[in-house]
Amino acid sequence: MAVINRIAEYFEEMKEWRQHIHANPELDMECHNTAAFVVEKLRAFGVDEIHEKIGVSGVVGIINGQGDGPTIGLRADMDALPMPEETGLPYASTVDGLMHACGHDGHTTMLLGAAKYLAETRNFAGRVALIFQPGEEGSGGGRFMAEEGMFERFNISQVYGQHSLPKSPLGNIETCKGPLMAAADDFEIHITGAGGHAASPHESVDPVMIAVNMYQNLQSIVTRNVDPIKTVVLSLTQIHSGTTHNVVPETAMLAGTVRTFDKDVQTLVVDRMKAIIKGTAEMMGGSAELVYNYGYPATINDDAKTEFACTVAAEVVGESRVDGAIAPTMGAEDFSYMLEKVPGAYFYIGNGDSAYLHHTKYDFNDEASPIGASVFARIVERAQPLGGS
Hints:
Layout: H1 5-8, H2 11-23, H3 32-45, E1 49-54, E2 58-64, E3 71-77, H4 104-121, E4 127-133, H5 141-147, H6 150-153, E5 156-165, E6 173-174, E7 178-181, E8 183-192, E9 196-197, H7 207-218, H8 220-225, E10 232-241, E11 247-248, E12 251-260, H9 263-283, E13 287-293, E14 299-301, H10 303-317, E15 322-323, H11 336-341, E16 344-350, H12 369-383
Parallel strand pairs: 3-4, 3-5, 5-16, 6-15
Antiparallel strand pairs: 1-2, 2-4, 6-16, 7-14, 8-12, 8-13, 9-11, 10-12
Helix pairs in contact: 2-4, 3-4, 4-12, 7-9, 10-12
């Protein structure tokens, strides 16, 4: 494994950084202390420009290379999850109900390691933009940073990110061209009937009956409306109605999620949902309203940038440990907003045999930090080589 020697020398430092971040998690967009820690490190590294409070608590650091050239972006997320930690580690979360259970402490550390190396060596042309983002788990900090004009302001022409992957061997790199993760939308259906005595159901309009029929009818969208070659998930995950056993309730509510890769499929699903919801409710004497919330768009890797990232990763971990043709998943990631702005690639880095993401016993593997930092650094050096070769 050809980890960059200089970055390998940072290992103990990187472990300290990561475990400090892990012990001090912050939620959603309010990653101010984590951002301050990042800024402190970037200043110590000699990063040329540090821009704070982009997307509430986001940070962008700029390192100038040698000579003219474009700007390449590297991104890490900083936020934790609202869940308890059960690892029992000496550096476990010190904040009740918050935990770094998705590896963002490690993602930030890998980018800091790359930043230190790149600020020391500057063996590249143009500039690198170090993007430290809040709010991936909730509000979509990637969208806020993009909408605030980050890409235009720093003239970022391509962007790369990586994510911890438990159960994958330590340091393996996995990704694919095109769609990698799905768009993730959620919805609520509010059904109105006419309440009454459960012993006289003919005198009421039962919203539970409407909900049950609606649930079944909505499944026909996937089986009968969407091209079977396309991929879509429509999951109804909640049903709420009633207060007691002898009353027909007035209302009911269904809720769930829609996952798609293709915007045309997403539009088709929403249109069919509206028609089925309206028709089912009216057929049974009630009414219904769909509240549909568009979430993160699909994470779609650029083909050429993905192939490039895999080639570079192979320099670090070896060709046999890079898989550039994995199957997409129906999870979601707000790096998608950045890939809508400029071409780039998102990839996974193996975490070894750890607990899975969003588990109370998950912990980022510190042994992965020098590997991920080396991949980031080599991407910059290969994308923007000195002399333009």
